[in-house]
Input
Amino acid sequence: MKVAILCEESGILRDEFLKRGHDAISCDILPTDSPGAHLQGDLFSFDWSGYDLIIAHPPCTYMAVSGNRYYAGTDKRQEAADFIRRVWELPIKKLCIENPVGQINTYIPEMPKPQYIQPWQFGQGETKKTGLWKRGLPDLIPTNIVEGREQRIWKMPPSKDRSKLRSRNYIGIAEAIANQWGKS
Output
């Protein structure tokens, strides 16, 4: 499959698809942390029409429920919703937008309800409820339910890399996505 992982600087999910023999590339406005096939720039400046699958991780700062007290009703939230809508409108049959619990369906009611997953369903004993808004893809099936419900993300102290660390893909979830959706 030809796969694009949008808004991913880590390269984690892209690399899982590459390991399985797919033609995968990541794209972000930032350089990749993991050397490999990566387009740096505005994702809307590239042609995605030849891709079989797109998985996007739009920035969540302005759309997440955790930001309601700061961004509810602001232009920043509307701009974030418009960005997500543009990603959803890409002419791709198999597309997924990943984001934490937020206001996506409030601002973009035409999008389907998300499937919610947790890292502890995929081998990592942490909590981070994450939504998958999907088109043309089956539900992601848990692969390794483990004990432990650590709130590592929520407990992270302030730092210059905090937002980057909070948004990194979990390897267990990346492996499940590449294994399951790489076959669909």
Observations:
- The chain has a mean pLDDT of 91.
- The two ends are 10 Å apart (CA to CA).
- The longest helix spans residues 75-88.
